[in-house]
Every structure is written in structure tokens, then in C-alpha cells.
Amino acid sequence: MKLTVLMDNSTIIDRYFLAEPAVSYFLEDGNTTVLFDAGYSDAFMFNAAKFGIDPTMADYLAISHGHIDHTGGLEPFLRRCMERRFEDRDARCPKMVAHPEAFVPKEIDGKLAIGMFVSREACATNMEIIESRAPYWFNDRLVFLGEIERKFDFERPGPIGVRKESEGDIPDELPDDTALAYKSEKGLVVITGCSHAGICNIVEQAKGITGVDQVYDIIGGFHLLDPPKEQLEGTAEYLVSLNLSVLSACHCTDFPSRVRLSRAAPMREIGSGLQIEY
């Protein structure tokens, strides 16, 4: 599998790509292609073009969760899908795979919208939508993990704002937060968006779904932003137990947390413009 980092908070030194506080990855495994998250703006599409990648040609668009820094680029993405279909009525666009709660509006402080700005209905005009709380296999090696079981007590940071459900506002524990897992010859590669569900919970779910215990790499945001000491130390101890070959923490993982985790596993530098082959 080839993984291209289309968007991250940082860029790789001497590679002239755009960066923003957001996530987007492009995965290629044999004949299967998956766009994982769509960044905050159209910048991920600019970066993709430098690689000769057209994200609208992917087989799937997988959404890690319904926050704006992972879905903000959907509007320009859908516009490009519409243009392709207008020019060629037989053109296909990716199938969208997401947890049902990803589409529910989200707010903090009672008035600040942080969820998807594009509705489910708007997405459905150009893409088949697969809403799934259960795992969804893209092929026999790459899987969308579905709703993550919360096992570790130290990974319970509390709600982030509210979800605007039909029955009223509900404290948002981000049940839609999920990740992907890839079965490589050297072990699992776990690919995350923000890990609101807890990176240790996510890895445990990936191991259970795939039946693979050895984890080779974890890449993505760990949502460790000035975390409680108990959470950071619990995470570090768990990562030590995995005996990882490499650790690729980025996006919403602050510098002190990366320094601490670098003592738990060999840390790789991540940024827009990076390509990794597994």
C-alpha cells in the first residue's frame, strides 16, 4: 500500500506543499484507492494535483469523524465531482463511507459550529453513501473500523460540545470517531484522523477486527493536546507494549506529547507531501 499525506498541520522540509490544521490521506492498495478525510479547505486538492492524483477518482471517500478540519474540503470536492459528471454523465465519484453520526451538526459554546458544513443530502447528489457503525472492508487488507469500543479509562477525555440531534442537544462523546487499518506483511498499519475515541482503543479494535496482533505503524492524529498526565503516560505505556517499528503521530498531537511518545517508539516526521509505502 502507498499512503500519500495530502494534508497535515506541517509540511515536509524542502517539499513545497500547503499545510493547514487538518487531515487528508490518499491510500492506494492494488486496484483499491481510498481518500481518507478531506481536510479543511481545497488545499488537499492542490497538494494532490502536484502528485498527479485526482481525489474524485478514488473508489472510496472515508470520513474519520464529522469535524470541520476533516470534512471542510467536501464542498470543493463535491463541486469537482459535479463538474466531472457534467462533462461526462457516465463518470463515477467515490462511494462515501462514514458513521451515521458524522452527518449530525456539532456545536461548542452554544453557537460555534464545528461539524460538517455539507449536508448528507448534498453528498448524496454525487456519491453513494454507506453509513456504517460496523467495520467495512474496502478489500481483503484495508478496513474501516466502524464505531470504536471505549475500553481504557484513561482515554475518556469527556465530550466536545454537543450534537444537535432531533431530540435535542446531546453532549458529544464523538461516537462517529473511527479509523482505518491495513494488514501489511510486517503487521498492522493503523491510520487515524483525530483519535477522539482514544488511540489505544482504536488499536485494540483494529487488532480484534483483523485478527492481527502485531502492529507495525500508527499514523495520524492522537488528540493529545495538553493531555492529562494519566492519559499521556497510559498511552506511552500501551505503545511500548506494542513494540512498534515506527510511530507517525501528527495533526492534533502537541510537541510535548510527541517528545514523550518518541521514547515509547521510533518517531517518524509527518507532513504534507510525505509518501510512505508499506
CATH superfamily: Ribonuclease Z/Hydroxyacylglutathione hydrolase-like
CATH architecture: 4-Layer Sandwich
The CATH top-level class label: Alpha Beta
Average per-residue pLDDT, rounded, comes to: 96
Structure description:
The protein has 278 residues and is α/β, with parallel strands linked by helices. It is built from 7 helices and 17 strands. The strands form 3 sheets. The chain has a 7-stranded mixed β-sheet with strand order 8-5-4-3-2-1-17. The protein has a 6-stranded mixed β-sheet with strand order 9-10-13-14-15-16, covered by helices on one side. Strand 11 and strand 12 form a beta hairpin. The longest helix is centred in the first third of the chain and has 14 residues. It is globular, with a radius of gyration of 18 Å. The chain starts with a strand and ends with a strand. The model has no long low-confidence stretch (mean pLDDT 96).
SSE layout and pairing:
Elements: E1 2-7, E2 24-29, E3 32-36, H1 43-50, E4 60-62, H2 68-71, H3 74-87, E5 95-98, E6 106-108, E7 112-113, H4 120-124, E8 129-131, E9 136-137, E10 142-144, E11 162-165, E12 168-171, E13 179-184, E14 187-192, H5 199-210, E15 215-221, H6 229-242, E16 246-250, H7 255-261, E17 275-277
